[in-house]
Amino acid sequence: MTTSVASRASTRTRRRTVETSTGWKRYRARTFYGFISPWLLGFVLLTLFPLGYALWLSLTNYDGLTGRYHYVGARNYTDILNDHDALHALTRTGIYTAITVPAGIILGLALAVLVNRPIRGRPAFRAFLYLPAVVPIVGSALCFKLLFNSDFGMLNNILGWFGISSIDWLADPTVFWVMVAMTLWGVGSTMIISLSGLQGIPQELQEAARVDGANAWQVFRRITLPLLSPIILFEVITGVIFAVQAFIPALLLSVQSASTTVTSVPQSNYLYMIHVYAQYFAYGRFGYASALLWVLFALILILTLIIFKATAGAVFYESGPDEQVARRREQSR
Amino acid sequence: MAAQLNRRRFLSGVAGAAGVAALGSACGSSSGRTTLTIMGNTPAEITDQDVAEFEAKHPDVKIKFVTVTTTLLTAMFAAGNPPDVVRDQGVPNTPYLVGRDLALNLDPYFAKSTVLAPDKLAQVNDTWRYDGKVQGQGPRYGLAKDYSQDAMVWCNTKVFDDAGVDPPSTTDPMSYDEMLDLGKRLTKRSGAKYTRYGVNPPFDVSLTAGFLNMVASSGGSIFNDDFSKVDFSAPEPRAALEWYLKYATAKVGPTVSRPFPAGAWPTFDGNQLGMLGFGYWFSGEIATDPKIQGTMRFIPAPQFGSTRVSPCFSATGHWIPKKAKHKDEAWAFFEHYFGGPPATRRAESGWGLPGITTLNAKLPRGKPYQKQALDVQDKEFSHYSVLKFSPYISVTAIDASLSQELVKGLDGGLSAGKLADAINGTLNPLLQLGKELIT
To answer: Among A116, A139, B147, B373, which residue has the fewest nearby CB atoms (within 10 Å)?
Structure first.
């Protein structure tokens, strides 16, 4: 009874406010849509429309240049199953993802723990470690190519001092590890996210654990890690999405010349998106390449769902089951 | 009276300003100059001077450049707004462009032109002709700004002297095997580190053209009679693949899986490469580096099979799309660029042989290396030949397939036969698709 009276009073007050308000406040709904319309427009034109257009293209044999093209049904999708290069690219992408995502998260977290400690020059360490993440990837790739160049790279010169024979770092199979190293070079961005997570953990929980006799490892394992789990889940999901779409590192690390094309990328770095790009712009198979992209889109959705399901019991959201039950009880009253 | 800027007045002002701007823009396009959109390389190939002269001669036309990329060209065609002039290579692309009904038949313009009368055009411009079946016959669809016989070779005699090896003859062509043998003797490396490369065979303009040249010399073809299929398993293409694998295994020069770390020009200019498979056009680059001019020697194209051939791989020039909005202005640009002062300046620079025969006299001969190169070039003209391409597939796709399979083959130690099967397996479905689309 009390609640309904209060609710009526609140509605009356709100109506009066609307009646008496001036300017934008008179048109709340229209103002809302007005403000979000640029995003909505962008979403429709730059996301929904291209998705739909790519879906349509994936059902045709369009070559990107010829005006005439035909509907081919699901042929492009069934062709993927027989495309050894697509399956090879998918495998390489899987290996790249399986290495760089966990390594990036572990390295980022380790660095975050280090720069979270009260040490002298901490801001400078944080800045130095984060710096590679803000260097444009083209710059990083150029540095890596110079470093690993077989003829005049620093690494082969150092090997030469010790009488060790030069290695062709930018060719198969070593170039894959150069790409992994280049990806992990930008681990500063993961470090920053983990650091913000670490700083959100209440100190009193860690202090209480120490008072109870826990050592540093136990505090990290029993307190820090569970409280960081939502952050780590975020890093895993965004990391996987980023890694399966990786394209630029592989392309930039390949030594291009007039007689080579995107398909000359060494086989160990022949990632899925390289294959997609080659189908679009080297082979002119716009329909098939669009089908490959839709398969990737579906794959990312499935991977994300699997990760959510697999980590459901391992991620601690602070509002645990007890709080959720209490909230439900509150709502039912 | 102090005017108060409230929201309504502000919005009215903005709307008014936008209206005035739109009106101004509309007036500008209706009464202003025509914009001629050129997909071309500027200022490297179409210089500021070329543009200024054209705009001075045609004050009602303004030139706008867009970057030369297949991606952009595709997007512009898809949007129904192609450029008015497009840079391209006539040798590999004319059948493909004409087959897709993209290029404008320029015969009516040639018929009226005195500047670009067909009898003034060098033979290479025939690569821009296609009658639907044979390249080199039928209507003209474009013009070459300049050209070279791209399988010819430049030698750096300092590298030969350092290695104690005699340079090859300037009159008789060497065989591909002799070229490989010389490359082995010139190369100096330790592990993966090269201090001297032997040879960069003529594959740099296009991997496909490089192979077609070798196959043509053996009297074969990679295509069947109607260009709807490839067969790399046939004896001649297979022999060419075998030679490439042999060359790659010898580690005497760049390959698709291991290109020059610093590029071909710097390596050659830096006295780290003995033989460079570039055509006459490279004399323009040599002219920019006086240090190496005394050690340059131009030699005939090496011979793979029993027939001596020396084709042009590219015939780089321009074409006008059928759907171009300013065709007459585009032709006016053609007459200026291909037949006017820009063509003369290009000939004088030595960056390629001119597309107009009368301009041959303008080629530079002042320095010993220039004279030597032209003497060899003059004799090479008689071996000029034309490579044949299919209308059903782009050269980019053939390059991509060759490149991809060769990388796999070199890394995985595949035989030429397996490589040939893999290339056939990639290219024949693409040819089939192309045939479906244009017939």
So the answer is: A139
CA A229/CA A220 separation, integer angstroms: 12
Residue identified by tokens 């002119």 is: A284
ipTM: 0.83
Burial grade of A278 (CB within 10 A; 0-12, 13-18, 19 or more): buried
Percentage, residues of chain B above pLDDT 90: 81
The model's pLDDT over B184-223, given as tens digits with 9 standing for 90+, comes to 999 999 888 999 999 999 998 889 999 999 999 999 999 9
Sheet strand arrangement including B142-144: B61-66, B34-39, B85-89, B316-319, B142-144
Find how far residue B389's CA is from the centre of its chain.
Answer: 14
Q: Which residue of A has its CA nearest to B263?
A: A257
The predicted pLDDT at position B199 comes to 98
Q: Which two tokens stand for residue A309?
A: 């399901």
Which stretches of chain B score pLDDT less than 50?
1-30
The dihedral of CA B231, B235, B241, B245: what is its sign? positive
Scanning A71-100 for CB atoms below 8 A from B yields: 85
Do B26 and B117 belong together in one domain? yes
Domain count, chain B: 2
Q: Are strands B316-319 and B142-144 parallel, antiparallel or unpaired?
A: antiparallel
Find the CATH number of the domain harbouring B318.
3.40.190.10
Which chain A residues are Cβ-neighbours of B203 within 8 angstroms? 259
Residues of chain A with C-beta less than 8 angstroms from the C-beta of B412? 267
Distance CA B198, CA A70 (A): 50
By C-alpha distance, the chain A residue nearest B80 is A67
Which residues have C-beta within 8 Å of that of residue A105, sequence separation ≥ 6? A190, A194, A232, A235, A236, A239
pLDDT attached to residue B17: 45
Q: Is residue B428 part of a domain?
A: no
Could you tell me which of B213, B186, B150 has the C-alpha nearest to residue B268? B186
Same domain, B166 and B254: yes
> Which residue segment(s) compose the domain that B275 sits in?
153-299
Average pLDDT over residues A61-71: 85
